[in-house]
Amino acid sequence: MSLRVRFVGGPADSTERDYPRVDTPLPSLWWFDLDVPEMGAVYRRVGEGPDSISGRWRYEFTEL
């Protein structure tokens, strides 16, 4: 099982990613741009469950 995520706000706004090696929704994630590895940001999990339609956990931008 993989962690399915949707990022909200900041440089990753509206980006969706799957993390196949993570099966637990972590309290925060470090997002980075695959094309520009120097670009990254911290996102924090919102809510206690994934979206009922998409199955994705919502992570909101907190800082660069």
Task: Please compute the radius of gyration using only Cα atoms.
Answer: 11 Å
Helix content: under 10%
Sheet having the most strands: 5 strands, mixed
Could you spell the SSE succession in H and E letters? Answer: EEEEE
The largest beta-sheet arranges its strands as 2-1-5-4-3
Description:
With 64 residues, the chain is mostly beta strands. The chain has one domain (3-63). The chain is 0% helix and 45% strand. It contains no helices and 5 strands. It has strands spanning 3-8, 16-19, 28-32, 40-46, 57-63. The chain has a 5-stranded mixed β-sheet, with no helix packed on it.
Layout: helices, strands, pairs:
Blueprint: E1 3-8, E2 16-19, E3 28-32, E4 40-46, E5 57-63
Give the structure's gist in a few sentences:
The protein is mainly β and 64 residues long. 0% of the residues lie in helices and 45% in strands.
For this entry, give a set of tags.
64 residues; mainly beta; five-stranded mixed beta sheet; 45% strand; globular
